[in-house]
Write a structure and sequence with these properties.
Number of helices: 8
Strand order of the largest sheet: 3-9-10-8-7-4-5-6
Radius of gyration: 17 Å
Oligomer: single chain
Shape: globular
Largest sheet: 8 strands, mixed
Order of helices and strands: EEEHEHEHHEHEHEHEHE
Distance between the termini: 13 Å
Structural class: alpha/beta
Length: 214
């Protein structure tokens, strides 16, 4: 995929592509990040979002979204900010650790984009693989150290029918600026704490088992 500069709302430029296993994007917010992933990955078929900040970018891009949320207040507030047309493109329902796997198995999807919480739900990863059509994509987004560990662990698993494609670090320009100017040894209270950026892993659903770095 060629590098290019994308001009999202708020005049924040997202630079980069997903043509290498590690890339860095500047994004305005979570919705800008999801919009960039849709543009780069160009998924076909149903898109499922699980506990995913910025999921509203999916219906705004003209795509249908099935959204599973953990926090009702946040989800309903986000839904209310969409236009009537965008709301009609969105199916939204609650999920918890014990119900997510069952709900995912009801689908046949071209992309499942989720927070790393999905990896901590019993049976959810297996259900995700079942729900993805061959060639479909799994996108996992993390915001903290535990998320990063869980995503990194998944990249090393070889027997699943998932081919690791890319790892993306994304943050607002101010976060990168702060990191560049911070003195060595900046502590957890600094501007570059793990929660100030996203770490995203991308996998391709293969027809058979095995994982290959590309």
């Amino acid at each position: 995929m060629p590098n290019r500069i994308h001009q999202p709302p708020l005049a924040i430029a997202r630079y980069g592509s997903l043509d290498v296993p590690l890339t860095v994007w500047t994004v305005g917010d979570a919705a800008d990040l999801v919009d960039g992933l849709l543009e780069e990955l160009a998924p076909t078929g149903r898109i499922i979002a699980v506990d995913l900040p910025g999921w509203q970018a999916i219906p705004r891009a003209g795509r249908r979204a099935h959204v599973y949320y953990r926090h009702r207040t946040t989800a309903t507030r986000t839904l209310a900010r969409l236009t009537e047309v965008e709301q009609r493109r969105t199916a939204i329902e609650a999920a918890c650790e014990s119900s997510l796997a069952v709900k995912l198995r009801e689908h046949r999807a071209g992309m499942i984009a989720a927070s790393a919480w999905l990896l901590r739900c019993p049976g959810a990863l297996e259900a995700t693989i079942e729900a993805l059509r061959p060639g479909g994509m799994l996108v996992l987004a993390g915001r903290n150290e535990q998320d990063a560990v869980d995503i990194a662990t998944l990249t090393d698993i070889r027997f699943l029918p998932l081919s690791f494609t890319a790892y993306l670090v994304a943050a607002a320009p101010a976060v990168f600026d702060a990191a560049a100017t911070a003195s060595p040894g900046t502590g957890a209270d600094g501007a570059t704490t793990p929660a100030s950026h996203w770490g995203i892993g991308v996998w391709l659903r293969t027809a058979e088992g095995g994982s290959a770095h590309v």
